[in-house]
């Protein structure tokens, strides 16, 4: 809630600069900067309370450490995943969570007719989806690594860039569920063990 309000006020600061009288804008700018400063303090306080709460529970702090070991998953994304999944108790399957976050594509069909191409659901939780999108952008576009190579390969095949980013989001979700399920830190260079 605080973050949304801060975004609105910051947007007002930049949007109305060209359209307002300079004196009116200065007064409004000062007022909005005071509000955003207070909101920043409140946000920092809430984030610290969340960190303290997670640090007080060994299971939650272990989950946070495991999730943050994955490229593209930062502290905010990891905390949001822990909260959304109720410490990975409410969702046992990553595919169900992909549906919840609007990452899984669905086809619209009736009988033998297919009405459209595959699309993601608009009823998704947009807050976690945006965090996953930022993580996917981090690992897919400007960096090196497995997901970057995957992104480039799929785009070279002619896939839509947003569809490929959506697939990278799904891969991040699957990796998060895998590290929690296996209770192991993510290994970038995983070596398969032969029996």
Automatic annotation (TrEMBL):
It comes from termite gut metagenome. Keywords: Coiled coil. Residues 65-151 form the Transposase IS116/IS110/IS902 C-terminal domain. The keyword Ribosomal protein does not apply. Residues 22-52 form a coiled coil. This is Transposase IS116/IS110/IS902 C-terminal domain-containing protein. GO terms for molecular function: DNA binding; transposase activity. GO terms for biological process: DNA transposition.
